[in-house]
Structure formats: C-alpha cells, structure tokens
Structure prediction request, 436 residues.
Amino acid sequence: MSIRNNRRDFLKIAAGVGLITTTGLHLRHTTQASAETNAVTVVVVGAGLAGLAAINRLNKQLPNARLILVDSNTTHRYQPGYTLLATGVWPSADKVLDDNASLVPKNVNWIQSQVQTFEPDQNQLMTEAGETIKYDFLVVATGLRLAYEQIQGLSVRDLGTKGIGSVYASPEIALATWQQMDQFRQRGGRAVMTLAHTDMKCAGAPLKMTFMLHDRLQQAKTLSNSQVDFFSPSQRIFSVPKVNENVLNRWKALENPIAVHFERKLTGIDVAKKTATFTDTQGNNHTENYDFIHVVPPMEAVESVKNSPLANAVGWLDVDQYTLQHIRYPNVFGLGDINGTPKGKTAATVKLSAPVVVQNLIDVMKGKLPSQKFNGYTSCPLLVEEGKAMLVEFDYENNLTPTVPFVDPLKESYFAWFLEEMMLKPAYMAVAKGRV
Ligand SMILES: Cc1cc2nc3c(=O)[nH]c(=O)nc-3n(C[C@H](O)[C@H](O)[C@H](O)COP(=O)(O)OP(=O)(O)OC[C@H]3O[C@@H](n4cnc5c(N)ncnc54)[C@H](O)[C@@H]3O)c2cc1C
Prediction:
C-alpha cells in the first residue's frame, strides 16, 4: 500500500479516537503533598528525560521543597529522533536539540556540574567542582554510558566515516551514519548489522536500522547486488519472544532476506581493512568483511553510579523493579536508563514510571510504604519500511500491552509510523515538562 493510502487510512482512524490518549499519554492527577512533607531537600541527578520529568513533577507536587538538579549538560537531546536522522527521514539535527534551561523550573537550584561520588550512607554527593550536596531524598537519573572503547580498534572518531555507522552516539553521528548508509546504498554490497551483548537503551533501534537499510537498498534498486547480515550475541534478536519471532519471520520473507547469525558478539573492527571480528560463545573469533557496518556499543552504568554503594552486582542502580525504590537506601529512587530493572530503557518507560517514582518518594516522605507499582511498560514503534511501523508495547512479563485498541502490535501500519515521525517528540516533551 502506498504511503498516501496509508495516510488516508490513518486520518480516518485518528478522527475516531483521541490521538494523545492513543499514545498512552493518560493524565495522572496526583494530589499535592501536605505541608509537613515540604520542608525537605530533594536532589535529582541528571537532566535527561528522566531527570526533567522527575524535577518538574516534584516541583508541582512539593511546591515548598528545596529542589536541586545536578547536571552540567545544558543541551537537551531527543534521542528517539536519532533513528530518523540516521535513516534519512529527518534531514537535520535541529528537531532533536532543545535548551535544557527552558525545561528546568525557574525555582529549582540547577547545579551545572557532574556528580563525582555518591555517598548514600551520609545522604550526600560530591560534584566534580568539589561541592558537597546533602539531601533528604535522592532521585538518580543519570542515564547510561556507551562503551565503544570495548570494541577493539574502534574509536568514536571513526563513527560516521569509512562505512561505519552508529545510531546511538549523538545527533551528529546519526546524521553522518545516514551519509555512510546513503553512499553504501548507491552501489550496494555487504552490510553487517550488530547488537550489543549488554542491556540496551531502545533495543528496537538496531532492528529499525536493519529494516530501514534494507528498504533504502530496495528504493535505490541495489538490493539485488547486496547482502544484509545481522549478528546477535545471543540466540535471539529481541527479548520479547513474540516480537523476536515476528521480526525473524519478516526478515526471512523479504526479497533478498536478511541472514541472521546467532551467538556472535562484536569485539573488534579493523577500520582500514573494513573487517569486523565477532567472538562466539566458545571464544573463537570470526572475521567478516563489510562495506557498511552498523555498530551497537556495549552499554553500562555511568561510572559515578557503577563505583558507588548504589550499584547492583553489575553496576546498574539497585532498585526494586516495581517501586523503583533503592533496595538498601529507602530515601533513594531511580528513574530512566540507569535503573537495574529487567527491561525498560526507553522514553516510554520514563513516561509511565515517573509518576510512580514521585508518588512513592512522597509516600516514604510521609512515613508510609511506597503505594505505586510499575509494571515494566516499554514501547517502541518498530520501523519496518518508510511509511510503516509496528507499535510494539510490552511489560516485564513479556506480555504485549497494546494501548491503541485498533492497532495490532505485530502488524505494520502507517499509524505507528506517524506516531514515531510526528507524535513522539511532542509526547516526549510533555513527559519532560511533567505534564503527563
Ligand atoms: C537511537 C535511539 C532511539 C531511541 N528510540 C526510542 C523510541 O523509539 N522510543 C522510546 O521510548 N525510547 C527510545 N529511546 C530511548 C530513550 O531516548 C531513553 O530511554 C531516554 O532518553 C533515557 O532518558 P534518561 O534521562 O534516563 O537518560 P539520558 O537522556 O541519557 O540523560 C541522562 C542525563 O544524566 C546526565 N548525567 C550522567 N552522569 C551524570 C553525573 N555523574 N552527574 C550529573 N549528571 C549526569 C547526563 O549528562 C544526561 O543529561 C531511544 C534512544 C536512542 C539512543
């Protein structure tokens, strides 16, 4: 079906439903905390989506509290938009850049430095500028770290050059990834697509890149002289079995199918020779030639959390997966990608879990147990070709949890594409401002 027909279908459907509620943006009305809970200091670390959602909500619900935000980052980057930059849908980075100053409430004390050490036994943290900040309650929202250095021979400077792309690193590198992909598709050749062996933010992004690369080759009429290979470090390509099976079947059914190689972890790249090294589960290395490679780096907790008493055994923030309260420090909560939860490193997760964190923090402040439970909601509009996507939503138990009654999560639609291209950014900004 053409994009135009898809668009017409979508408009008919959209007329019948409230678009905002279909994205799962249900307004949650919360009562303001009572006066006695207000004479406290709450520190939020990180001014990404999670930190902003937390600070804006706290500002509304605890109007008299002393609120402190710590992050040196003044530019806000809308990361879900990187996929659209890296696949040639959005031509410039303007749409993904915002000024954090416009998103931080005026009465919040924003300390523009990074946290160097967390000292939860003293209810304090130290900044890189040498300042000690004491708190009554702490929300950790530092996001995660991209560990490109774990891929031997690869430097971040190589990304977006010499046939190497990566959607994750930055808006600039996402755009340069599209330039590499565009050059590649003019001639065709061998594309090597990868997946990290660690937890990932938006684990659907490497699949979106693969679908879109295949589609771009088809559009350029170079698919017949191309080969797209996907390498996964495990025995699957997505954690939710139904989605995993669906995508694998789709790739098999494509004209010039995508070949999937399991138990192959990307461990090295020879940039000059255009070869990638994959290590199997027995520790044997396999070398693959490529004309274009998409690199998904290992992802891990930021150093300040990893090296602190707040970390779990592998470095992530040690929170209860339902209440998002720290396991050992009841006055500490976690929000966003830093959380050591089984799933959910997405903006959609932040949207549903920010109200849970803020309400539970207020409950504890009032001497109660946390009353709210998060179900692990994660969502990802999985682009399958230009103009079509699947709106995949699921929870901790791998249940599919569709919020739009007329959209089958395992079928592609223009509606889901439209959500990703047009609706996700406004919805995301509403989350950052604590409005939904
Ligand atoms: C390519 C891509 C595609 C994606 N697509 C989707 C999608 O389609 N749908 C979806 O829902 N999600 C998607 N996501 C995921 C989503 O963008 C993230 O889950 C979300 O942005 C995480 O927000 P965060 O605040 O936890 O982390 P971040 O946005 O990374 O922010 C973390 C902040 O913490 C700060 N910080 C770090 N360390 C410190 C420190 N020591 N002291 C002070 N501050 C610190 C950083 O400076 C940063 O500002 C995508 C992500 C990527 C990269």
